[in-house]
């Protein structure tokens, strides 16, 4: 009888020790695109776009995930998109400056542009924007060439067909 109880105790120990609500072990790379975004004016020089992750991935980020965000800045002559990593500071010839940056939590993200001039005078920075958000397991983030969107997608083994596209 003691052997059976010992066996149940050992099996129970293994069964309960393998149960965990730690979400770090299930992270996989994924990406989504937010199209036709017009940032919201907070002041003449400060605009933002904020959203939670639910419309894009159905829930929150895992504990061990980080973000890369790219902004569509142009198209090549052949129509291929040109993606620029955020954060990005643009210095203009007249001395003006515009800063694109973002922050995020497990639940949401905010993309911000702040400029030294009235952003309503340069609407290509605030209207009809397209962003690509790439969710990366933190362990892989330091190994990526983040400045090259195509390299990131190749390294993460993500295809264009896997990117969820959401219009706003």
Keyword list:
10 strands, five-stranded mixed sheet, five-stranded antiparallel sheet, 168 residues, 4 helices, disordered N terminus, alpha+beta
Task: Note down, in words, how this protein is organized.
The protein has helices at 2-18, 54-57, 138-141, 149-155; strands spanning 30-37, 40-43, 46-52, 65-75, 81-86, 88-91, 97-104, 108-115, 129-137, 164-167. It has 168 residues and is α+β, with helices and mostly antiparallel strands. The strands form two sheets. The chain has a five-stranded mixed beta sheet with strand order 5-4-9-1-10. Strands 2-3-8-7-6 form a five-stranded antiparallel beta sheet. The model is unreliable at 3-25 (pLDDT under 50).
């Amino acid at each position: 009888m003691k052997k059976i109880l010992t066996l149940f105790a050992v099996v129970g120990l293994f069964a309960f020790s393998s149960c965990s609500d730690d979400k770090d072990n299930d992270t996989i790379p994924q990406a989504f695109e937010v199209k036709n975004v017009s940032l919201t004016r907070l002041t003449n020089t400060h605009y933002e776009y904020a959203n939670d992750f639910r419309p894009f991935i159905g829930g929150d980020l895992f504990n061990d995930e980080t973000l890369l965000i790219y902004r569509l800045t142009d198209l090549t002559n052949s129509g291929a998109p040109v993606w620029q990593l955020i954060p990005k500071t643009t210095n203009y010839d007249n001395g003006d400056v515009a800063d694109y940056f973002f922050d995020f939590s497990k639940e949401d993200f905010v993309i911000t542009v702040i400029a030294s001039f009235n952003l309503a005078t340069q609407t290509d920075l605030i209207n009809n924007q397209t962003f690509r958000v790439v969710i990366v397991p933190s362990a892989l983030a330091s190994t990526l060439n983040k400045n090259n969107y195509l390299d990131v997608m190749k390294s993460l083994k993500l295809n264009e067909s896997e990117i969820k596209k959401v219009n706003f």
